[in-house]
């Protein structure tokens, strides 16, 4: 009896699963699907604004069309590898002033339009996996100040050819490896820290890397 029932009930079950999936996809294609704690608007850019909402996690239903995502001043502790990966058009992400202690390595994978990433004031972060920023070829501003960073792992800034502004002050960095800033030096001498420091004077002064006026 049971074995006869099973094949009959199956197609119905799969049908409803399929319907739910289709409904979800439809909802996602509407810009109007705004996560509960957020305010969303489309001009001048498609913006999802969820700052200061006491959020402890990144909303799972962020519209994939989002170009600017503001999540600062919350209590978020984790950036998952899946948090933003569908948001391929994202250009600005502010997630500063949270309590992030882990960024999963794939969190920003494929976000090759990202221009500005603000992770500052997440004082429990302490470590960033070296592949975290890989492929962010249009990133021009990266805030990593007040992140309790103890080190910058080898290759962390590799391939960030557009980076113009890198903020690293107020961390606990002890040693910097010679090749940390290699790809940020552009055509300058690989070992020319001072050349690099002309672009990010404040950062370099704090790090004791070189005199901005020299
Ligand atoms: C991303 O932007 C392009 C160009 O404006 C657009 O054609 C595409 O639909 C956008 N993708 C998403 C997921 O919104
Ligand atoms: C931040 O997270 C840590 C755990 O990683 C927790 O112990 C601490 O209480 C949190 N701080 C705040 C201000 O929420």
From TrEMBL:
<dbReference type="GO" id="GO:1905573">
    <property type="term" value="F:ganglioside GM1 binding"/>
</dbReference>
<dbReference type="GO" id="GO:1905576">
    <property type="term" value="F:ganglioside GT1b binding"/>
</dbReference>
<protein>
    <submittedName>
        <fullName>Uncharacterized protein</fullName>
    </submittedName>
</protein>
<keyword id="KW-0677">Repeat</keyword>
<feature type="signal peptide">
    <location>
        <begin position="1"/>
        <end position="33"/>
    </location>
</feature>
<dbReference type="Pfam" id="PF00560">
    <property type="entry name" value="LRR_1"/>
</dbReference>
<dbReference type="GO" id="GO:0009897">
    <property type="term" value="C:external side of plasma membrane"/>
</dbReference>
<dbReference type="InterPro" id="IPR032675">
    <property type="entry name" value="LRR_dom_sf"/>
</dbReference>
<dbReference type="InterPro" id="IPR001611">
    <property type="entry name" value="Leu-rich_rpt"/>
</dbReference>
<dbReference type="GO" id="GO:0035025">
    <property type="term" value="P:positive regulation of Rho protein signal transduction"/>
</dbReference>
<keyword id="KW-0732">Signal</keyword>
<keyword id="KW-0433">Leucine-rich repeat</keyword>
<dbReference type="InterPro" id="IPR050541">
    <property type="entry name" value="LRR_TM_domain-containing"/>
</dbReference>
<dbReference type="InterPro" id="IPR003591">
    <property type="entry name" value="Leu-rich_rpt_typical-subtyp"/>
</dbReference>
<dbReference type="Pfam" id="PF13855">
    <property type="entry name" value="LRR_8"/>
</dbReference>
